[in-house]
Amino acid sequence: MDPTNRGPEEYGHDDGSAPRQRPPRDPLTHALGHGGAPHTPALARTVQLVAGDHLLTVNPVDGSEIELCPPGERPPRPVKFSATERTELTRAGRPAVPPGVPQPRLPLLERQEERERLVRLLARGRSVRLTGPSGSGRTALLDAVADDCADLAPDGVVRLSGHRRTADDLLHDLFAAVHNAPLHRPEQDELLALVHDIGAVVVLDDVEFGGTALDDLLDATPECAWLVSATPRTAAPSADSLLEEVFLGGLGRGGGLELLERAVGRVLTEEEANWAGDLWFESEGLPLRFVQAGALLRQRDQLTADPHAFDGFGHQADAPVDAPFDAEDGHEVPLPSLAEGAAPAALLASRLSESARATLRFAVALGGEVPHQAHLPALVGHTHADAALAELVGCALVTPVGSHYRLAAGVQTQLEAVGYASDAEETARAAARHYTWWAGHPSVTPERVAAEADAVLAALAALVPLTVPPTEEDESVTAVELARAAAPAFAAGLHWSAWERALRSGAEAARLAGEVADQAYFHHELGVLALCGGQLDRARAELEASIGLRGALADKRGTVAGRRALALVTDRSGTPPPTGIGPAAGIGVAAGIGSTTGEEVPDARYEESASPPSGVPAAFAAVPALQGPGEPATLLTHRSGSAASAKTRGAGATGRVKGLVSGTRRNLAAAGAGALLAAVLGTVVTLGATSNPDDNTPSEKVGVGPSAGVGEEDGGLGADRPKKGSSDADSTSRPTDPGKDGVLGTSDDPTPTSTGEPSDDPSGSKDPSPTTSTSKPPSSTSKPSTSPSKPPTGSTPPTSSTPTPTPSEPDPSGEPSEPPPSTPETSDSASGPASSPAESSSAASSPADSGVPGSPTVI
Questions:
Q1: Rounded mean pLDDT of the chain?
Q2: In sequence order, what are the beta bridge partners of 179?
Q3: Which end of the chain is more exposed for a tag (fewer CB within 10 A), N or C?
Q4: In angstroms, rounded to a whole number, what is the distance separating the alpha carbons of residues 845 and 802?
Q5: Of 133-142, 619-628, 734-743, 762-771, minimum mean pLDDT range
Q6: Which pLDDT does position 105 carry in this prediction?
Q7: Euclidean distance between CA atoms 340 and 299, whole angstroms
């Protein structure tokens, strides 16, 4: 974010070529636009990047999409920057230079011994931890040592900031500072391999962790020499750490007076020297206090020359800023008290311009984070408000941290004591509205949003506890909108710790505001983030919550995106999701509003199939007859083709094998059962096909009456039939060749028997394979019935002493006539309902089960 090359869009003054998101102040202009037409919303900014083995598409609308990275999309091995490129990156990572006259650089006093010692240790490849209180000049000493070590390592000097950064964040920052890998975030193993080969002097300022985390950071980079600075409040390194400890204290009395004179720009008077001595004792010689005291003395000089030197904007009217003190020509202004010298923030701020004071209010409301100077004109409402940063830097009220500024040590507390936090809520809300518009603007790159992450997250953290459901007057929730705008930019800018913080803050704000759709979005993004980090259990929980919430909202696109990500989690973990995760069933798991009675949640149909957790078992490859050409690999269905399978499918005997969702053991058991069933059915089909070579068509053996059972339109068995022309070889879905005598498996003797008793020949016995009859089974009060099929042409009907009901003849229109009243009730099972032994004997002696031609048995 270069302040000297800002585009007009940064302040909302677009040229009209790009759609604007920030409404103008004039309502009429907002309604009509530049050309009399309403503004069109800006297109959503999507970014595609590679994260480990995944291809991540950051989608700020429906949620990010993640998939395994195709081989063609994998980036090559990253290459290192050249020395010139590293120098340019280091310059770009420094804080922006305030506009106006450059401030004089104060010398590094009484630090020569520490400076030489640090350079010696780093030249030997040793890592050092520099410990000193806030305001002791640690950053200035690090800058000097970094300049001395520019040529020590092959990869030069790398400057990093540990402010609100974890060890993992710093490893990624080190990788990005040395390697040229845009839109590439390596996984942990690849990252460790890449940083292992980096040989550089790493200068890390303001580290916030110690102990084993710091040891792991050093162990991951054995070719680097680390110079780490921390405060005494930071956790110490472990006992067996190889870090050298260097402590930094305050300046001596002489050094403090010399620094004060350099800050004022003149020789101190005797009164001022005595006052500085008392200040040295009070401040323990911290250089920051003497720089701030020098600013107090400069302001005193200006007031002495002209009591009205500071106008409403803090500028001196006539005399230059650096005018020498002349007590005879000016007005005498007393020295600040010792308390004001030890805590000078309130007095210094009272003599600054209105823009500088407004900037301090924003910094206090944002927890000490100072917005970038490019944002100050829009926040403060003054065209030249960016010059306020120069005033704050000159007074040492702000100090550089990484690539931005924040309030110096102790300034936050001092300003809050004098009322700068009285309107913190409204100030933070104004900053959040500005950052929402700015972060979502198409012209702002994700890298620029990531550089302003600390201020954006501070505004978000300040507003989340204050979030309430929206009212009719204010339908927007500022915290939710800011999180929705900033989180995708943080993800695309590879600042993933800020991405996670924004998502968690947004989820909490959405929960407090009752915004279910936004809450589902944040849970989805958290699941994707956890999946990229290898945290599969957390990813599953977040994605299931998102799917449940989106299912309740009927958000089809979002639900599909969540299911795709959940399928990838299942493939990676090998553990299936619980039953019932879907639009209706998952809401209870997601938001805790489902049933808690322990009732089984009904199965939900997925819109697209997912691969089994551990792949398809090899045994299923041997059963092509049981799987239709269009079926997914995770669903195995045994089609019976008649009402006979309705009962068995409901009982779970030969019905749909839902499997491949219960682990390896159940998969293997299902595979074995499928293979055995295929062998049995194959034997039956083979015997039936080879028993009789006659070319009698099956249509002459089967009656015209419809099969008893559930129809196709009822969603029953008919819905599972294979498509016409499919390769499904399931023998139970259609009648087989009746064979030579019109009966499958009958004896070679074509002479029909005169009785209804079964034949003694084993081949004339009832086929043990599952059969389907188109006739209605007998009831407990009626006689056994025969098949309504007509006998084949040229055959003699069997002779029986028992009269049988005549089957109904088809109507000339093609529709079957109503059966006679004596026709028994139907059954969903081929064997009929449970019957007594007598009924079973009667049924066994019927011609339909005998080996008589004209009574075919349909398989």
A1: 72
A2: 80
A3: N
A4: 11
A5: 619-628
A6: 85
A7: 13
Q: What is the DSSP letter of 277?
A: H
**In contact, 310 and 300? CB cutoff 8 Å:** no
Report residue 664 as tokens. 């390896």
Amino acid, single-letter form, for residue 460: L
Question: Start-end ranges of CATH 3.40.50.300 in the chain?
Answer: 106-249
Are the CB atoms for 437 and 21 separated by under 8 Å?
A: yes
- DSSP strand pairing (47-51 vs 184-185): parallel
Give the 3-state secondary structure of residue 792. Answer: coil
Residue 677, phi then psi, degrees to nearest 5: -65, -40
Distance (Å, whole) CA 559 – CA 548: 8
Instruction: Say how many CA atoms lie within 13 Å of 664 toward its Cβ.
Output: 3
Tokens of 729: 């070889």
Instruction: Say if CB 581 and CB 566 are below 8 A apart.
Output: yes
Radius of gyration of the chain (CA): 42
Alpha-helical (H) ranges within 124-232 are 138-148, 167-178, 188-196, 211-220
- Who's near 346: CB < 8 A, 6+ residues apart? 340, 414, 415, 417, 418
Structure tokens at 551: 């299912």
SS3 state at 129 = strand
Please say whether the dihedral angle defined by the alpha carbons of residues 499, 502, 505 and 510, taken in this order, is positive or negative: negative
Instruction: Put the strands of the sheet holding 54-58 in their side by side order.
Output: 65-68, 54-58, 47-51, 184-185
CATH class of this structure's domain 106-249: alpha beta
What is the C-alpha separation between 160 and 726, in angstroms, rounded?
64
pLDDT at 480: 96
Residue 735: count other Cβ atoms within 10 Å of its Cβ.
Answer: 21
Q: DSSP H helical segments within 200-353, as ranges?
A: 211-220, 253-264, 270-283, 287-305, 338-342, 345-350
The answer to whether residues 743 and 857 touch, using CB atoms and an 8 Å cutoff, is yes
If you average pLDDT over residues 108-114, what whole number do you get?
94
**Strand ranges for 697-741 from DSSP E:** none
Query: Angle between the 188-196 and 211-220 helix axes, to the nearest 10 degrees?
Result: 60
Strands (E) in 699-754, as ranges, are: none
Cite the beta strand spans of 333-484 per DSSP E: 398-401, 404-407
CB atoms within 10 A of CB 656: 13
DSSP string, 638-703: ---SSTHHHHHHHHTSSS-B--SSS-HHHHHHHHHHHHHHHHHHHHHHHHHHHS------GGGTS-
Q: Find out whether 344 and 333 touch, Cβ atoms under 8 Å.
A: no
Task: Return the number of other C-beta atoms located less than 10 Å from residue 374's C-beta.
Answer: 20
**Residues 760-764, mean pLDDT to the nearest whole number:** 43
Largest Cα–Cα separation, the chain: 147
Task: Compute φ and ψ for 407, nearest 5 degrees.
Answer: -60, 140
Q: How far apart are CA 56 and CA 517, in angstroms?
A: 22
Distances in whole angstroms, Cα of residue 296 to Cα of each of 276, 337, 418, 671: 12, 11, 18, 85
Specify the range with the lowest mean pLDDT, choosing from 95-109, 565-579, 825-839.
825-839
Distance CA 510, CA 461 (A): 13
| Residue with tokens 């239709």, as numbered in its chain | 628
Q: What is the pLDDT of residues 18-75, one digit of tens each?
A: 333 333 333 333 333 333 333 444 567 799 999 999 999 999 998 999 999 999 889 9
Token duo for residue 427 = 């100030």
Please state the separation of Cα 136 from the chain's center in Å.
Answer: 41
Mention every residue, 6+ apart, whose C-beta is less than 8 A from residue 519: 507, 510, 511, 549, 591
pLDDT at residue 675 in the model: 59
Residue 468: exposure state from Cβ atoms within 10 A (0-12, 13-18, ≥19): exposed
